[in-house]
Amino acid sequence: MIGFLRGKLVSxxxxxxxxxVQGVGYxxxxxxxxxxxxxxxxxxxxxxxxxxxxEDAHVLFGFATEADRVMFRLLIKVNGVGxxxxxxxxxxxxxxEFHRCINDNDTAALIRLPGVGKKTAERLIVExxxxxxxxxxxxxxxxxxxxxxxxxxxxxxxxEAISALCALGYKATExxxxxxxxxxxxxxxxxxxxxxxxxx
Length: 200
Description:
Layout: E1 4-13, E2 16-21, E3 24-29, H1 32-35, E4 44-53, E5 58-63, H2 66-75, H3 83-92, H4 95-103, H5 107-111, H6 118-129, H7 132-136, H8 157-167, H9 172-180, H10 189-199
Antiparallel strand pairs: 1-2, 1-4, 2-3, 4-5
């Protein structure tokens, strides 16, 4: 298994990023909570990773913190929750926010996440409640890297944000509606997605 990767960030198109590790480009799927903390292209970063092996593909997932990776691994053990839905949940809520939803039986907040219906929300609360101590025991020492986004290509930031939201499970019309009322003002794709998810 690949525990972590450290290399140069060469591409970031949510939810996919590419990391150059000694000349090998790794395609990594990451939640928006990780994208919010990415530095500029060309910078060196380290991500905690999880390798998902299916019959038709090997998919690598990356996380800025160990807490995010632990939560991802706990989520994919829940009946009916696969890696794609786990990524969407992590993109829509931080570990602390998810923790609160489970403790407070807040199905309404969970239902607002893409791909999570009432039954899935109830299942998450039941199955994750016993696993919360594992999240509490994880150190959340993230690399507090400042977000340094190049100004080049920001004109298409809204369209990129819509594409990223679709990749996370939102319908195209819903994703478009989420970002259309956000004043761009030179915001990056990641900033637009963050605001869209907060306003959901």
